[in-house]
Amino acid sequence: MSGNSASSGLRGFSGGYRYSLLTIVWTVVGFFLVAHLISLYSRKDNIHQQVSSDQLQVVHHDHPVVHELVRVEEESLRLPPPRKRSPRTSKRRSRKPIPLVEEFLDEKSPIRHLFFPSVKTAAFGPTKDMGNETSYYFPGKIWMDTEGNPIQAHGGGILHDEKSNTYYWYGEYKDGPTYRAHRKGPARVDIIGVGCYSSKDLWTWKNEGIVLGAEETNKTHDLHKSNVLERPKVIYNEKTEKYVMWMHIDDANYTKASVGVAISDSPTGPFEYLYSKRPHGFDSRDMTVFKDDDGVAYLIYSSEVNSVLHIGPLTEDYLDVTPVMKRVMVGQHREAPAIFKHQNTYYMVTSWCTGWAPNEALAHAAASIMGPWEKLGNPCIGGNKFFRLTTFLAQSTYVIPLPGVPGAFIFMADRWNPADLRDSRYVWLPLIIGGPADQPLEFSFSFPTWSRVSIYWHSKWRLP
Ligand code: DGJ
């Protein structure tokens, strides 16, 4: 009896044990099933949200000219047979053809006209007889101002002055002897100053002159003509009613690595140069400023020898940085930042660091401008593979919201001519936010929740 009861107790116990084990297993399985269903459901919701915002954009982009902007345009480069290296080099076994980027950088390259078409064959602007191509952009060709001179506003940015409903384009106005790519020796850069152009339509640009001039005699001055002034950007401060310019200030060897600040009562200057500094005590090279909808402005700069971007808010008068700063895209070696915002999301296009040589652009997105910033991938679409891997042979500098078309922007980039920086070209192309991002994201374990950023190649195009 007792044996039986003991064994039945044991059976009861082991049965109970098995029963509770099964219960635990099924509870865990059930828990995961429910969690999976919830995640699927919310993912579906996200996708729906994305689709509906895309549909929204499709509605906005239904204009026939907008449709044209997102047409994928292929472009074959008509290249002669690849050149071999010089006789001295070709004595060696390796007779590799010269890579296209090297051809691009070589001012004596026989295919240079493909990258830098001459003023005779390829200039556009209001003083040219454009036939029915008036107001078309021709990326890479020479863009003339209203006086028929090539526009000089490199590494530039745009200010939309609401008071006068006028656009101002500020950029590096360069001059001097032939420049050298600094891989071959120190750059010979004579600063002339910051050039300013005004326009009502973003195509017809009137030269407003040098709004911040170089210093001719005082060699210790930041703006002495032998120094470097790059990537000037201007924002308007509603409280002080001043136009504030931020720029990269450096010596000819790029060791000063500072930002400079200048101020003016008028968008067309003259700007008064205030000072330069290393923001937050760090080296600062390529930079931009971004003014948010709430009036807070931010400085974004490549730092720690270009290995990381720093972002921090400016003081209320926009004349200095505050102590707040975040390190973003750490170790990613990005420069040439261009920031823009759409539907409460911040976007940024940057380049890799290869001097004046073009390289592959990357787009990033963030819910807060202070980060984290997530990688979306290469935004370039169309053209050809070489174009896409070199940002259409150019480097980002600014992104302008396209008036009246939410989600559509103009991507502004510089096609640097290291042999003569004055002759650097502008590559302006339509940038559209929409459609799911095409790359798994660093911080998201589900499908991407950001929209894609796409820059469409067009050999010619115009605004809607
Ligand atoms: C790349 C930067 O983006 C430019 O503004 C300029 O600083 C060059 N490097 C100098 O090599």
From TrEMBL:
Stretches with biased composition (Basic residues): 81-95
Keyword Secreted: no
Domain of life the protein comes from: Eukaryota
Any one GO biological process: carbohydrate metabolic process
UniProt-listed Pfam families: Glyco_hydro_43 (PF04616)
Cross-referenced InterPro entries: Glyco_hydro_43, Glyco_hydro_beta-prop_sf
First and last residue of the signal peptide: none
Regions that span the bilayer: 21-41
Residue numbers spanned by region Disordered: 76-95
GO molecular function, one term: hydrolase activity, hydrolyzing O-glycosyl compounds
CDD domains according to UniProt: GH43_CtGH43-like
Keyword terms: Glycosidase, Hydrolase, Membrane, Transmembrane, Transmembrane helix
Record has Membrane as a keyword: yes
Family: Belongs to the glycosyl hydrolase 43 family.
Record's protein name: Glycosyl hydrolase family protein 43
Naturally occurring in which organism (per UniProt): Cardamine amara subsp. amara
